[in-house]
Predict the structure.
Amino acid sequence: MLDLKSESNVNIRFTSSLTPDDENRIAPAVINTIASILDMLPIAYMIRIDTTDSQVYQHSGPARYPSSGPEPFLARSSAGLEIDS
């Protein structure tokens, strides 16, 4: 059985051969590019880049589920009223 309440994390690590200055110039563009892709998905995420000179760039996005219209109405029985379906 799949436990949907457990949290899963995916850590992806890259090793850079760029200079610290180049890393600091590129990191915001990398975060913006990845975020624009992840924003299309119904997931919560956090992106973090730690550069060689200890600069930290990060961005997080909440889970957003696209609306497919109104939720279906499910009739319930209440106060002793029986509903046939």
Notes: The CA atoms of residues 74 and 85 lie 10 Å apart. The two ends are 29 Å apart (CA to CA).
